[in-house]
Amino acid sequence: MTTLKDRQRAAARARLEREMRARQEHADQRRKRRNTGLFGGLAVVVVAGLVLLLVNVFKGGNNTATGVPTNAPAKCTWTQNPALKGDKSTPVDKELVNTGSPPQTTVPTTGMPTWS
Fold it and tell me: The whole model's pTM is what?
């Protein structure tokens, strides 16, 4: 015959085991969610890296398009605005401001274009 104290101890032990099992299941679920997020993010980064790598590999090589003519470097000359000083056909425009002429540099013919 079991005593009251033995039944209380058995009930307490069973309750403790249920609580410990529930905590363990909760910890397993948290670990699973964390790992899913980490590995999912890692997979996205790896796939994006591979796509960029493949795009750069297959885009490389001869960058000239077939059948598209290449333009020669521009040869520009600077012409003063006649309205700054005035001449026979153009009167002096007082609202124009002389900001000077452009720098005497050459147009680059080599290198990669920069897009801003």
Answer: 0.40
